[in-house]
Design brief:
Radius of gyration: 24 Å
Structural class: alpha/beta
Helix content: 25-40%
Length: 369
């Protein structure tokens, strides 16, 4: 079994190459082994291209070796016609007699049928090698198909004294960077909210990491307060990749037309209680704000085949997801600043699975258990 784990780990390494480009297909890696030597490898191409098994089989120089080889794959081979033919058919045609599968595909069109076909044609199949790891790498895909909603990531930055934004009243005081606070030496800083510039809690490296995440996920959501106070772009200008679909909660359509979020630069959906005509890249969707907003949003995103969502704020929006227990992980930065007063950070409970330093910032991940 250890030798199987070795090659499934390699499948997982290969699968990661598809992050952000294979959706709505899952990220899959495949390795073909003959006499303890890897003779072929592949991972899922961008959507519409070949699957991992096809790329791996194609990469084998001597096709005569396939019938005495073992194929390792992180996710069950498909058994249906989509953009491409079934991978299980190619495996059978290639006379590969042994297949090691990391986990079963949750998609209803597959869901064990690929494994069943392989067995029916005399193939020896072993399922469940590093199963948890194989599910985790496709957590977005699994959540979408099993829970009928996107994988939800909550993200925020807070100060060392637990605030996500300062008090913008006229007498507000914001101390300079530093862990130690000397009230007698605080420098008075007047915040002009009309400039609509974010008050950064984290440094540029942490912010660049956030833009990397945006390129990896399909959609990003903020509330009206965040837009009105920060005028964010919600794009990936500090990273290379596709911008996520922008989602905004604006029940009363208060956001001025000259704000970045309405510029048409990135496809955007405004969720409102009112009807309004939009355009191709600026869509208005009416919701019933007297009912569960989060469930309505999740339902809409499921219809749009959105498998992952970053919720970036503000506190009220994030806390709503937490209180309804509709979240999967939280990514939290704790910056090396103090505000003394302001908007408190969301209150969350879960399992802390990771913690690290990024410069002077502390970053942690909390999983919903």
């Amino acid at each position: 079994m250890k030798i199987h784990e070795k090659y499934i780990k390699r499948c997982l390494e290969l699968a990661k190459n598809g992050l952000g480009i294979t959706r709505p297909n899952p990220m899959v890696g495949c390795v073909i082994v003959c006499n303890n030597v890897i003779i072929g490898e592949g991972y899922t191409s961008p959507f519409g291209g070949h699957h991992a098994e096809v790329n791996a089989i194609t990469s084998v120089m001597d096709k005569g070796l396939l019938e005495k080889s073992t194929l390792y794959v992180s996710l069950e081979p498909c058994n249906h016609f989509g953009k491409t033919p079934p991978c299980s058919d190619l495996i059978v045609k290639s006379k590969i007699s042994k297949v090691i599968v990391g986990c079963v595909d949750p998609f209803a069109e597959v869901a064990g049928k690929g494994i069943e076909k392989l067995k029916k044609h005399g193939c020896e199949v072993i399922v469940g090698v590093l199963e948890e790891e194989c599910i985790d790498i496709n957590k977005r895909f699994f959540t979408y198909h099993l829970k009928k909603r996107p994988y939800i990531i909550l993200k925020w930055a807070e100060t060392i004294d637990g605030f996500v934004s300062p008090d913008f009243s006229k007498d507000s005081v914001i101390p300079q960077n530093g862990l130690k606070i000397d009230n007698k030496k605080l420098k008075q800083v007047q915040i002009d909210a009309s400039q609509l510039q974010p008050v950064w809690i984290t440094h540029e490296y942490s912010r660049q990491l956030v833009h990397k995440w945006r390129a990896e996920e399909q959609a990003i959501l903020v509330g009206t307060s965040t837009v009105m106070s920060d005028n964010p772009r919600l794009d990936v200008r500090y990273w290379k990749g596709d911008d996520p679909l922008r989602l905004v909660l604006d029940s009363k359509l208060r956001i001025p037309e000259n704000f970045h979020i309405l510029d048409g630069h990135v496809k955007t959906i405004i969720f409102s209680s009112k009807e309004k005509e939009g355009s191709k890249d600026l869509i208005y969707k009416k919701l019933d704000f007297s009912k569960n907003i989060v469930e309505q949003i999740n339902h809409k995103l499921y219809e749009y085949e959105i498998q992952s969502l970053i919720v970036e704020g503000g506190t009220q929006t994030i806390q709503t997801f937490i209180d309804l227990n509709l979240w999967d992980e939280a990514r939290i930065f704790i910056g090396n600043k103090s505000f003394l007063r302001g908007v408190k950070a969301p209150i969350i409970k879960g399992e802390e699975t990771s913690k690290m330093q990024i410069g002077l910032d502390t970053f942690k991940i909390i999983k919903n258990i």
